Amino acid sequence: MTDGHLNASGAHPLSGKVVLVTGGSRGIGAAIAKRFASIGGRVAIGCRSESSAKTVLDGIAATGAEGAAFAGDVASPAAAREMVEQVVARFGHIDVLVNCAGVSEHRSFETSDSDFFHRIFDTNVLGTVSVTQAALPHLTAPGGRIINFSSGLATRPIPKSSIYAASKAAVAALSHALAKEFGPRGITVNTIAPGVIETDMTAKTLVERGSSIVAMTPLGRIGQPDDISGVALFLASPDAGWLTGRTFIVDGGVS
Predict the structure, then answer these.
(1) Model confidence over 214-247: pLDDT tens digits?
(2) Percent of the chain with pLDDT over 70
(3) Number of structural domains, the chain?
(4) Which of 36, 95, 127, 160 has the highest Cβ tally under 10 A?
């Protein structure tokens, strides 16, 4: 599988680029890691444990691309910094940062205590902040790319999603602000806000509401991880060099 235009040598313009994908061992993150590997990217997978990335790394190795896993909990600034340092020690620098690590848990507002709030915000928001801060000194400039992850729920929340939706709205606002701050360095910052995508994280939702989600989606199906990975690849490519500070809602037309 290849994507996009080839350069004069016949290679994809992102071939050989170093891509760090946090949350890259499962779901959307895994699809993004494999998509970048398919065009010759050098892929660093940030994950909770290196063993969790084995299946993805085996798939990357099968393509002949270079991939490695780096363990760390992005909710801890120190762990995030150590993870990035290990990536740079292995690959030398970072061309594309994809902050895909996140947690999704819904709870009624009345039962959302401070522990629940911090569990969601520490991973989804502080994790994005911490990895970005650690990676920034090593990010290619000009030409570096940062791709963050929000959610369709940030703009059209459902009952019991208040804390999660707020965390994802914060990521979108953060990205917009960072685009202003990093633009003079030639670094773009964009956000992908997926709708419901079929992964292990959404399995319960799809059992409960899958048919109604399909019915309200103009394209008439549930989104797949590769529907998102292609958008990430585009945002990392030279073709997206004039796009920054934008949130792309990728939900099959539900919005």
Answers:
(1) 999 999 999 999 999 999 999 999 999 999 999 9
(2) 96
(3) 1
(4) 36
pLDDT reading at 1 higher than 50: no
Catalytic positions, written as ranges = 164
Domain that holds residue 29: 18-243
DSSP assignments along the chain, one per residue: ---S---TTSS-TTTT-EEEEETTTSHHHHHHHHHHHHTT-EEEEEES-GGGGHHHHHHHHHHT--EEEEE--TTSHHHHHHHHHHHHHHHSSBSEEEE---------GGG--HHHHHHHHIIIIIHHHHHHHHHGGGB-TTT-EEEEE--GGGTS--TT-HHHHHHHHHHHHHHHHHHHHHGGGT-EEEEEEE--B-SGGGHHHHHHHHHHHHHH-TT-S-B-HHHHHHHHHHHHSGGGTT--S-EEEESTT--
Tell me the pTM: 0.94
Q: What is the CATH number of the domain that holds 123?
A: 3.40.50.720
Q: In what order do the strands lie in the sheet with 145-149?
A: 67-71, 42-47, 18-22, 96-99, 145-149, 188-194, 247-250
